[in-house]
Structures are given as C-alpha cells and as structure tokens.
Input
Amino acid sequence: MDPQRITTPISGGVTDPMRTGDGQATPDATLSEIWLTVRKRKAVIFIALALGAVYGYYKGATQPRIYVADGTIEIRSGAANQYRVASANALGGDSSTQMPTEVAILESDTLLFTVAQELDLANNRDFNRIKGNAPFAHQSLDDAIVREHVLGSLRASMSIIPLTKTDIIRISCGSLNPKLSADIVNTVIDAYIHHTYNARFESSQRLSEFLSKQLSGLKQEVETSQQRMLELGRPLGVLGFDANHNQITLNLDDLTKAAASAEIARILAESRYKVLSSATPDSLSSMIDAVPGNAPNGLISLRSQLATAQANYAQSMGYLGPNNPQAKAARAQIDDLQKSVNKEQARLIEQARQEYVAARANEQQTSAALEKEKADAYKLRDDLVEYTLKQRDFEANRTLYEGLLERIRTAGVQAGLESQEIDIIDQAHPPVSPTLESRSSLLTLYTAIGLVFGVIFAFVLESLDTGLRSIAEIEAVTGLASLALIPRDRKSSVDTASLTSLQRSISVLANPKSQFAESFRALRTSLLLSSAGHPPVTILLTSATPSEGKTTISTNLACVLAQRDVRVLLIDADLRRPTVHHRFGLNGRIGLTTVLTGASSVEDAIQHVPEVPNLDILASGPVPPFPTEMLGSPTMNELLEKLKSNYTHIVIDSPPLLSVTDGVVLARESDAVVLIVRHGKSSRHVVRRARDLLLRAGAPLTGIALNAVDLNSPEYYGYYGYSGYSYAGMDTSSWKPKSRKSTEGDRE
Output
C-alpha cells in the first residue's frame, strides 16, 4: 500500500444546508428540522393526543353537578368621611388599594372560619362531597388538620371578584347542594359586614381610649405650663406685658444719652483745663480768649485797665521821669492791676480744673448708672426669653389639648357611622340548575394539552436520543463523508420458491433492481471514486460494536462489485464469530486460518460461488486461540500481497473495533476502510471512539455507511426511487449473474 496515496472520499449522501465550513452543524433549528422531528416521533405525539382526548372525555362525563350561587355587595366611602379621624384606617383611602384590601378580608382565614363554624361545614356531607349513605365521622374545627382542610375547601369553592371601575364585589360559591351554596354566600356577606362594623367600632374605641389617656396627661401639662408662665411674669410686672415698651427700656435710653453728654462735657472741660494749665502767664490772656466755654469779662476789664495804666506810665515817664510822683503813682497802679490780673488768671485756671473734676465725676456716675441699668436690662431680657418660651409651651399644649378633645368627640361620632358603608345589592338565592362545563370544551382543552405535552415529550426524547439517525448527525460527529445509505432489507415481492438458497441469503441477488441493491451500487461508486489515480484494492468493512450489519454489507457489496468485469475476493476475517460461509452455503472447515497456519494452500482454501462467477470466498476456517496475533503476522501481509495480484478488489469482513483489536490491525493493511454505522443503534461517543482508534492507527478511513435506514422516514424521502424514480415495468426476477469471462460490465 502506498502511504502517500491521497484518498478523496465521495459522499453518497446529501449535503446538509445547515453545515458550516468546519464540518459542524449550526445550532439553529429550522422549521423543516422541527417538522422532521415531529414526524419521526409521531407515535409519541399520537399517544399523548389520545390520552388527552380520553382524559378530557372522562372529565366531561364524570364532572360533578356543582350549583353556583352569586351575591353582590357595594362598598361605599359613605358620609362618615368628613368625621373620620385622619390617622384611622379608613375605607376612603387610596382607591387603588381599597378593593384588593376588601377582597383580602373576604378571603381571610378569620372570616372563613366564622362562616365554617356558623354553618358547621366540617360535618356537612354536601360540602365534603360525600355521596350516598357512606359513613362519616363527626369532626371538630378545633382540630388543626380539619380546620385547614375545611378552610382550604371553602376558599377553593368560593370566587370573590371585584367588578372593574365600580365599588361592587361579586361573591360566588359552588357546592353539590344549591341551598348550601346560597347559605355560604349570604353567611360570608353577613360575617363581612359584622366584621367590618366591629373592626371599625373597636378601632375607634381604641383610638378614643388612647386619646383620653393622652388628654389626661396633656391637660395637666397645660395647667402646669400656664402656672409657670404666670409665676415668671409676676416679678417682671407682666400683665398684658409688652416687651418692646417698658420703663427699663426707656431708662436705658435716657441713661445712654446722658452718658454720652457727660462724656462730651468731660472732654471739653479736660481740654480747657489742660490748655490753661500749660500756658505761660504772658500767653494766658490770649489763650483764655481762644478757649471755648470761658467767661473772661472780668479779666478783659482788668487787662484793659492795665494796658491804659501802662500807656499812661509810659507817657509820664517821657515827660516827668521815673521819680515823679505821678510816675510812681502810675507805677503803683500798674503793679496793683498786674496783681489783679494774675489773681484773676489763677482763679480761671482753678475754675477750669474744678469744672473738669466735676465733669469727670458726672461722667463716672452716669456710666455707673448706665452699666447698672444695662445689667438690669440683660436680666430682663433673659427673663423675657424664658417667659416667651413658657408662653409658647403653654400655647402649644393648649392647641394640642383642644385638637385631641375635638378628635375624641369626632371618633365617637365615627364609630356609629362606619357600619353604613356596606350595602347588599343582591342576596344569594339557591340556583335552579347546576353549572357544568361543556364536554366539547373539556375534550378540546385536554386534547390540546395532550398535544402540547406530546410535542414536548417528543422533543425531549429526541434530545436524549444518542443514536445516530441522519447523515448530518454522523458527519457532524465523525467529520467523515457518508459513502451511502443502506436501507432496511425488506422482504421482496418475488416468489421465494423460485429463488436459490444463495439468493434468499443475499438480497442484491434476489432483487437486483430494488432500493436495497441500488444503495450498494451507490456504495460501490463511492468506493471506486474514493482515491485519486486508481480504485482501492483492499476494502475493509468494520463497525464500532457488534450487530451493526458488517457481514450483510460485506457479502452484498462483494456481489455488487463482482457484477463488473473484475475479480472479487471476499475474506471472512472475523475469526471469532465467522458467518460468511453460512451466507453462501460453503464449507467452513478450511479457510483463512488454515492458510495462515500452513495447513492448506490458498488455492485450496478459496471457494467459488457458481451464482456469481466473478466472486470468490475465503472463509475464516476453524476458530484459532489467538486471532489478533494471527491477523497481524507477516504471513497475513504476504497473503494479502499475493491476493492483490490475482484480484481487482478484496473485501474483508472484520470484527467490531471496540470489542477486539483485529479490525485495527487489518485496517493498517487496507486501501480503504468503511465504518458501518447502524441507524438508531450506534451512539455518538461509540462512533467517535471507533473513528479515533482508526485514525490513531493510521488507517485510510474512507468514510461511513449508514445501515438499516428506514427510507419511509421523512428525512430520507427521495432516496433510491422512493419519490417515484425507479425501475418501473421491469421484472427483477429475470436477472441472471454474469459469467466469469463476461466482458461487459454493468452500466450505472
């Protein structure tokens, strides 16, 4: 065998339009694939459909005669809203939650327990659906199990529906007794009205009691805060007190003004005193005139007299001289006037000092009085702040007290008005006839449910089915091309009495124009075109597991290959369970094992088939103790090389790959290896494992052949004449095998 030979497998199947470039199928399921799954699993779907129809008919025939009674009530906001306490759980709240809240109350365990207790439903035979005179033990609602059962049954038999865009609720109940149905509805309505009235009344009473307790303590707080406010206002002289106009404030304003005036007077007196005390005697006269606030009338007069005397003295000095009595008298007058001026100046300075001292003392006294008045004002301000706080506390307590007092009176009025908000529109009356569902509707419903579950179960089975059933699946799992589809061998319409034993064993001989024979011609064509340059000589057929049809395909393929002008040898290499010689009715005592052991020659071991002149058979021979070692021996290789020179094609039937390694050993010495996969039997992981064994052994794996295919299944519609293109009008029984010397081959 040339290891460089390039094999090009030709697929005998169809190309899957959903396959991608890497050989894997896309996960998108098309409508056609879904339809194929439905048709393939139609038995499951029909069974589920039938079960659904039977159950629907049973439900329609055995449905109980239920009497349904209806009653309606209206839930109004009522006139009590204007008296309702804002914090109470009033009905006139959010309209979006009002009706669901009331429905929840109607379905509550408390209300239903009241109804069950009043009507003694635990011991009612009609409510418990006990027919005839069957014994029925007395039950008590005090038992938790009985109570849960009764409330559950009551809730299941009732229907509470609020009518859209209205304040009306419809209450329905169904039971075996029409009067019981009406009694349950009316009792539910009465219990609901009673529960609502009691709940509202008790809520208002609890609110009144709570407010009364709060009012008692609040009244004491109001009195205490009022007393503290009066006690604080009494020392402040507050009696209709106005904090913005009071005597302390007025005194503070006057003292502030007086302190400012005293400070100004002190500054003026101080400046006058400092100016006069710091002046020289010569400049004192002129300064006295310039200092404001002085009264220099006497000093001015003395200065005027002194100036006159000095002028007279100076004049007399010029005429009379210093010793003149007049001059001396003038001089004496000047001295007296100077003394008077000095004395007057000293008096003025002393006067200025005394005025400064007086002004400073006045300023100090005024400031002290102002500070004292400020301290009193600050204390008054703190007292007024505390007084204001006490006054606000009193006002707040009084307002709260008056509000609570008003609400207590409102709650008392509301407690009597809440019961008027529920009106009974329709009382429930015993129904005349039972309410039964249409049998046709039940039949249609359960039939549709059965159909849905059947389809679901069909797809579940399809997803759990690991068997390979289509060319697309096999090619996706193995990555190999499909060589042909071998249909399931069906019994021929030809009279078996006219057939030989070999024709009855080999179907392609019994009916050569059938779909079964046509599939082997497709396999033959794929094998002959599988390698470039020349067709394969040694063809090995193997499978992953037993009972996948290797021997059937080997024998029929050998016969189809022999129909051409070629010599074909079929070797039974299954040395553990040989069956080829049985198919052809030959002797199995000599064969491959006797040739390999040297017990016989290959010419003596090869047997001829008279019905197929171009076909020779090499049976397996006796079963050896070590088949694998015998098939892998050099003698086996030499035998194959010798046979290749005498035969155009050598077909080898081998044991399964996963059971023994004989097939792997023979695959290495073959030109083409065909992996047989039985439709619906071979699983994905088994086929993938067999493929891996062959590839790791370096076998020339040509492709796969899908065996035992049901061509009536929808996915294989159109194969081998099923769609109408067949050998019409031909008598298949007239076919006769060619002679060994025939030179004319079959026309494809």
Summary: Residues 483 and 542 are 14 Å apart (CA to CA). The two ends are 28 Å apart (CA to CA).
